[in-house]
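Input record (one chain):
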Amino acid sequence: MRFFSTSDGVKLAYRDEGKGPPLLCLSGLTRNSSDFDFVAPHLAGHRLIRLDYRGRGASQWADPTTYTIAREAADVLELLDFLRLDAVTVLGTSRGGLIAMTLAASAHDRLKGVILNDIGPEIDPAGLALIDSYLGRPPPYKTYDAAAVARQKMPGFYGVPQTRWQQEVRNLFTETADGLGLNYDPALRMVFTGQSNQPLPDLWPLFAALEGVPLALIRGENSNILSPETAGTMRRQRPDMIFAQVPDRGHVPFLDESESLHAINVLLETIQ
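The corresponding structure, as predicted from the sequence alone:
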């Protein structure tokens, strides 16, 4: 794990591993660089850069009002400048995909390609409601084992071995004497609920800003965030977009499924 400081003085953590074309991995809302632990072994031949957003993972907690997509996109650009990278391909899971679309609108020339993992310019209200039910609240489990058992029953995911859930909960939570704790600043909830009380902005212009950027979309067949209708509209607007639907997965695919890997590899080969 390495660190750099942003222009507003926040110390952010990132991983920088491997050699080859740079692939910047951006995680989900409450997640961190461990989001990509399962796909990382399949990305040999690339320089894998993984960022922990402010307030997540090993990064410093910050003023909660800065936990926004706009500020996080600015952090990404500052990381690229710090690493002296002119342009990268982005693999964006959920919120990471929204950040990638924001970059397409604000810093188009910094993107060589974009892979969106189960996210689009419209977000299903059912998924937002589920996020609201747990965001910023410690999980009701005392141990990793208990959390893994509960995860195995999570709707939308089928045929996932228990060993995978054991790995997943260790990425999601920290174990304390009082039970499992959050691996992010719980104040993130304040920003989310404040935004959820407002009308959702029109994000389709951000998706349109990806014009000219090689693009792939991965969707979990049972996703409650990216609806089939939104994915269909995205495909009609970008008929050149590589598309994969992953069976037996909800929000989000782990990215090491055969369908996910095929889409990722085709996109990366297109750019090379």
